[in-house]
Amino acid sequence: xxxxxxxxxxxxxxxxLYDAIFAQLTESDLGRVAVRxxxxxxxxxxxxxxxxxxxxxxxxxAHGVGPGDSVALGLPTSPDYVSAFHxxxxxxxxxxxxxVQYTAGEVAHQLTVSRARYAIAHPLALPAVAAAAAQLGWSxxxxxxxGGGSAAGSLGHPSEVGAAHDAAVAAGHTSYAQLLACPxxxxxxxxxxxSHVACVPLSSGIGGLMKPVALTHRxxxxxxxxxxxxxxxRRSQHVFLTFLxxxxxxxxTVTMNCALAGRYELVTMPQFDLIGMxxxxxxxxxxxxxxxxxxxxxxxxxxxxxxFDLSSLEFMICGAAPxxxxxxxxxxxxxxxxxxxxxxxxxxSPVTHVTxxxxxxxxxxxxxxxxxxxxxxxxxxxxxxxLDIPAQGRSATGEMLVRGPNVMSGYLDLPEExxxxxxxxxxxxxxxxxxxxxxxxTWTVGRCKELIKAKGFQxxxxxxxxxxxxxPSVADAGVFGVDLRDGSGDEAPxxxxxxxxxxxxxxxxxxxxxSSRVAKYKxxxxxxxxxxxxxxxxxxxxxxxxxxxxxxxxx
Length: 555
Known about the structure:
alpha/beta, Rossmann fold, GMP Synthetase, Chain A, domain 3, nine-stranded mixed sheet, five-stranded parallel sheet, 16 helices, 23% strand
């Protein structure tokens, strides 16, 4: 049985993402602040931002970038990210958001599977990006570096960033300033919103290695149309503040693109800083902030909160991991605002559920209800049969399936992986176990997928297992996530390792082996050596049994 949320369906515009955001700007809109740097106050109006987007699109188009290509973005949350993302999409290519913490090996994987022609990088991410590009045989000019002139919004001290930018340009890399100064008109590209790919983020989906997700213009435009009724329940004008990385589709859609589409002011921070966030709310009179459970926990307890005027704040949206009722209630009470929990997946553009702002009766631990145009089913994870939804109380636990215009077109160049998660009728299997009420209020209670969530990012166990197997002493490895139980919703990766006969290694050696090859948020928390990994009758790894191999977890 398909379940819908309380809000009515909305009309989905049949247009490109650029047209949905920039084509209908009025004279009044053009003079509004579009995006601002929290630390310095530097800002771009919608007119200035659109001009930058068009210039970036023109430069890329003149250099052969267009439909079927992608451009990887290794940038922090900043105005440069906004102009780069939309410039790439404007020229008919797809933007591929990339975590700035990635190592060279991780960058090389993303550049390859996303079909990247160029990469745009921040100077502090440049060593990994440049090394990956060289590994793939790219010429240095295909790596574009930001930070020339004004380094607004950059990580690190501006002078330090500027020096790194200048050194990179001297080494043959292209300055982003060249793109912004391009005087040509952007290319005239015919875009079919339903099939033209606009964004290629990476996701592990319901298991396995990170895969390129093909999000079309229709997917992204639809999710904006679906979220807008929720955000505009209180007012039609906002000041959004975000520190979340735009490499995460949660921040990309819910803050960056929602703010632009709504003609709101978007205030950016390159990374989380509690005092900086509180100061920015006070200075810019922010009305909405997107957060994750770890930040919610800090806001509930940190004494610094009392030192700032946060009266402008109307609501916060919390996502990327589960939130407890206790923490959610404490934040809402202390800040005097509504805290709405949400749910999404990269494959869903990403949002499918949000708590309606006019429903304070819904517990903070719930992920809310389906947004407009979303259908949801709850099925037995073993048989696939639909579960009964009771008139009162919660349903039995089942896997959540969703269908809607924001569901990805598939994994790029991976039809078999697409078929594992997206069926012929358009239902996407989330891999999340949930309980639901008759009106669609939903709670996540577990996962039937392998994914580990660490600091709000995805960590596929298979990726860490592959890294461990590159060590000469390791015969086999299994990785699983352990809930930190600190109210953050975060998990830590634990490894269970089998050594080759006669081989010797220490846990510290294994930890160092992994940490030298992956981004920091993927670092292992613990290593346990065993004689054999638990396996099912068919020989496959029994990941659910891995915790029993770790003595400290047995109780």
